[in-house]
Design goal:
Layout lengths: L1 H10 L20 E3 L2 E7 L10 E9 L5 E2 L11 E5 L5 E2 L8 E5 L2 E6 L3 E8 L9 E13 L3 E13 L11 H9 L8 E8 L2 E8 L15 E5 L11 E4 L5 E6 L15 E5 L11 E4 L3 E2 L1
Parallel strand pairs: 12-19
Antiparallel strand pairs: 1-2, 2-3, 3-9, 4-8, 5-10, 6-9, 7-8, 10-11, 12-13, 13-16, 14-17, 15-16, 17-18
Length: 295
């Protein structure tokens, strides 16, 4: 993962060199401090029920002025990952990331988190677990944390949970899990996206096609930010936004000079973030799009 950071950095000439133990029966892992952050594993439920999927999360607290990276960091940075070492019969889904934020690595725009963030995973336990016993979930987290300097890091984390016939929502953490899932980017049938590529430029146009689409105010250019999901678009380049007479919106994007995804993509994979949301009820702040790239 560090090699990706170095390649992206070289490509853009960037060669620059709280929690106390909770004391609960659940045995939450203690927050561990590294440069610029603290992290711990936390549960959404109070116990593991045999055969029933449950969620645990990697809770990251950033010190002021520091950030870590989204699953696609942009032209610089390394995403936070979790490699699980689970008991036999347990299966872990992918690490889930809420909507990204625009962050700055030195003077380079990237995609990550400065706020405290919870990255969660759905884990499926086997059916044969015995109520009254405990299980330990462990794994190794890895990340890049940047402020005025950048620090790759890793640590082993674990959490002990009881096995029971039933479980309740955790009084401290369940609301946080739900809050983060509400901030996941989602597609919307209320908007139609069109992408036209010409050389290093990509023109992305959005049109409202259903009544639930929140229209753009005439004469007022909205705050809209595009986040690349595959690295095809340069996260550091300025994104020009134009409001069109027909009520549509066009963003002018610039391709990245280095693309690590192999063949050029057939679609523009991205997330569009809009203050106030994309729907008239102010929902869906972050919308996923995958229009065909017309060339």
């Amino acid at each position: 993962m560090l090699s990706r950071f170095m390649r992206s950095s070289l490509g853009h000439k960037l060669i620059l060199g709280w929690l106390a133990p909770l004391g609960l029966v659940l045995g939450l892992s203690m927050a561990q401090a590294q440069t610029g952050l603290k992290m711990q594993l936390v549960p959404e439920d109070t116990a593991v029920v045999p055969g029933r999927p449950f969620r645990v999360g990697l809770f990251i607290q950033h010190e002021p002025g520091w950030h870590t990276y989204w699953r696609q960091p942009g032209i610089v940075g390394v995403p936070t990952t979790m490699t699980w070492d689970l008991p036999a019969g347990f299966k872990a889904g992918p690490l889930e990331y809420p909507e990204p934020e625009a962050t700055m690595m030195f003077h380079i725009k990237a995609q990550g988190y400065e706020r405290d963030v919870l990255l969660q995973t759905l884990i499926t336990p086997p059916q044969h677990l015995v109520p009254g016993s405990d299980i330990i979930l462990s794994g190794k987290a890895a990340w890049m944390c940047c402020g005025r300097t950048c620090h790759p890091g890793s640590m082993k984390l674990q959490i002990r949970l009881p096995v029971a016939q039933s479980a309740e929502s955790h009084p401290q953490w369940a609301a946080r899990f739900a809050q983060e899932r509400a901030a996941y980017a989602q597609p919307s049938a209320a908007w139609l996206a069109d992408a036209q590529e010409d050389g290093m430029k990509v023109m992305l146009t959005l049109r409202p096609v259903r009544s639930e689409a929140r229209p753009f105010a005439p004469g007022r250019v909205p705050q809209v930010v595009f986040f690349t999901e595959d690295g095809w678009i340069n996260s550091d380049q300025e994104q020009q936004v134009r409001l069109n007479p027909d009520g549509s919106l066009t963003l002018s994007l610039v391709r990245a000079e280095i693309f690590l995804g192999g063949k050029p993509p057939l679609k523009l994979h991205g997330i569009l973030q809009r203050e106030g949301g994309w729907h008239v009820d102010a929902s869906l702040r972050s919308m996923t799009i995958q229009p065909l790239l017309r060339r």
